[in-house]
User: Fold this.
Amino acid sequence: MYKGLTLLAVILILAVGIGPSSSNKRAYVAGHFALSIDGEEPSFVESAEGGAAYGEVIVEVGGGSTLAKKHIGNVKYEEISFKCGTGMSKALYDWIQNSVSGKAIRRNGALIAADYDYKEQSRREFTNALISEIGFPALDGASKDAAKMTIKFEPESTRYIVRAGDVLKGGGTKQKKWLTSNFRLKIDGLDCSRVNKIEALTIKQKAVQLEPTKIEFPNLVVTLPEAFSQTFFDWYESFVIDGKNSDADEKGGSLEILDAAQADVLLTLTFRNLGIFKMGLEGSEGGAERIRRIKAEMYCESMEFKPSP
Assistant:
């Protein structure tokens, strides 16, 4: 079969698995992940990790011995994390919406690993999961990077199953391109047309013994050219320096995530009771030929998440 080839060439062929007798190795590569919630058609995600069951190691010291006795205690389950774009399932979006609005709902489902050809290879089933964190990426008007949300949830239990399944059919074909530069910010009474950066936003759901407690909403931190920051400075002077910071002086706003053409809205985050508390120059070197930019920081009492239909 390898007649006419040098010994070195034959060794290389055998090492990398190339040649007439080699099969298609792509089928053994877990190249795709999908999320299914409550039996709904799975949606493809960028990456996924966690969810392993593990035994808590108990260490006992005493009895006059210098050696510690160890044994397994309760079974615990890792937090599950995945990254995704837009075009996810209605079940996931409903889960996120309810979590952000303070209506924590538990979900059952599975993270499915598929090979290069989208054939299911294994799945990690989870039960009674509670969303613990929803992360939105930093936005930058000058960037061309793809944007992804990060979702984390804590399951009550998990089970790992290895099985060969059918070709997955899911929401991957519905994904719309989302770049970190495609956004539109609106805040009542402020000129946000020149805001070019928004820092990452992470909403956290605290839980005690898997029971939801309070939700932590992040600050809204934006950057814009100093020449277009007057409305922000006026609010800052009134709200912070002059002390006019009652509920009536707080503002509402929204952040719209746009498609590649910046025409259609893919997702909307609505901000309630924004209060500005800090403004300052973005770090820059003296003499540098760059636009002077201002960074404005605002607290936010609550948010609302809404996907486009």
